[in-house]
Amino acid sequence: MPDPKVRFDELITTLRERDFRLTPQRVELVRLIAASEGHPSAAQLYAKIRTQFPTMSQATVYKTLALLKEMNQVLEIDLRDDSHYDGNRPHPHPHLICMQCNKIEDGDLELDPPSIKRLEKTSGYQIVRPQLLFYGLCPDCRKSG
Amino acid sequence: MPDPKVRFDELITTLRERDFRLTPQRVELVRLIAASEGHPSAAQLYAKIRTQFPTMSQATVYKTLALLKEMNQVLEIDLRDDSHYDGNRPHPHPHLICMQCNKIEDGDLELDPPSIKRLEKTSGYQIVRPQLLFYGLCPDCRKSG
DNA sequence: CTAACTGCAAAAACTTTGCACTTTT
DNA sequence: AAAAGTGCAAAGTTTTTGCAGTTAG
Question: Rounded to a whole number, what is the distance in Å from the CA of A52 to chain B's nearest CA?
């Protein structure tokens, strides 16, 4: 994980470059995203922001996330129930998801480029964004289950 | 793709073994699932069934799909907007999804067991169900886009 | 006959949208 | 001052749930 301060500056710079306005709400969300260890959901981000900005609405959270996503600065992990976001490693990468407690961890697995190339060749698809999700049981839930 | 008739019989047998009742609605859904080439959504299955059973409800479709899923006879591909189902290859396998026309194709890619083992070891997770989605552009949309 | 299933409508849950008001630049 | 963003509430989607009536075994 990159230094939160550095990542924050990166994100702010990117927003400024694209002439998006730096409202306090937006800056705070960026700060949270840059500092977040895990993979927060929109609801979790909203809850945190509310402590600082009691008037902030969910709509604004979603709109800002859409913005960052569109700039490829945030990776969306779209689960069935709700989306989670990774603002520190925006490049697609695998995730492990606990089916019991819903914990999400980064997965340490790299598809080798030749496989992907072959997949593109045999299918004719141009692959833009792989999403590799591994549903299972996290260490804690394995024990207690 | 297995022979639809054979697959149909398999599914019916499995249902019977587990003492689930063979209602006409259920049988028809199984027939459709066994004969479907692609990866229909609940809504698409519902629409097709309605031509035969005008009174059939979406609830019943979902309940039956849940049943088949629970018996591991149908693979659910859960996309953000809606789930699609594969009743012919119930074992998890990769899918290519067109971001423009939403076409879904089976992907010809096999994760090698050692990689998965390593992923389990480094993460501590016990992997139950991998879901590999490759979002991109299908051949048709590449041309027209 | 009885346990299971169907179908309707309502509920749930996340996300998007419309619009008036406010704020950044 | 103008364009962009916020926040509220309402709408939109897919899927689930409760329950009375129906049906398979």
Answer: 30
> How many Å apart are CA A89 and CA B4, to the nearest integer?
44
Residue nearest to nucleotide C14 (CA to C1'): A82
- Residue range A115-124: average pLDDT? 97
The H-or-E segment that residue A98 falls in is strand A95-98
Q: Kindly determine whether residue A107 and residue B129, on different chains, have CB atoms separated by under 8 Å.
A: no
pTM of the prediction? Answer: 0.94
Residues of B within 8 A of A124 (CB-CB) are 138-139, 142
Whether nucleic acid strand D comes within 7 Å of the CB of A28, the answer is no
Residue-wise pLDDT for A22-63, tens only, equals: 999 999 999 999 999 999 999 999 999 999 999 999 999 999
Rounded CA gap, A139 and B84, in Å? 30
Q: Write the CATH number of the domain with boundaries A94-144.
A: 3.30.1490.190
Q: Do A107 and B126 touch (CB under 8 A)?
A: no
Q: State how far the Cα of B135 lies from the Cα of B133, in Å rounded to an integer.
A: 6
Domain range summary for chain B, segments of one domain joined by + = 4-86, 94-144
Answer for the pair B81, B63: CB distance below 8 angstroms, yes or no.
Answer: no
- Residue positions counted in chain A: 145
Give me the residue label for tokens 């699932």. B33
Mean pLDDT of chain B: 96
What's the longest Cα–Cα distance across chain B? 52
- The class of domain B4-86 in CATH terms is mainly alpha
Strand D contacts in A 48-67 (CB under 7 A): 53, 55-60, 63-64
Strand partners, B75: B86
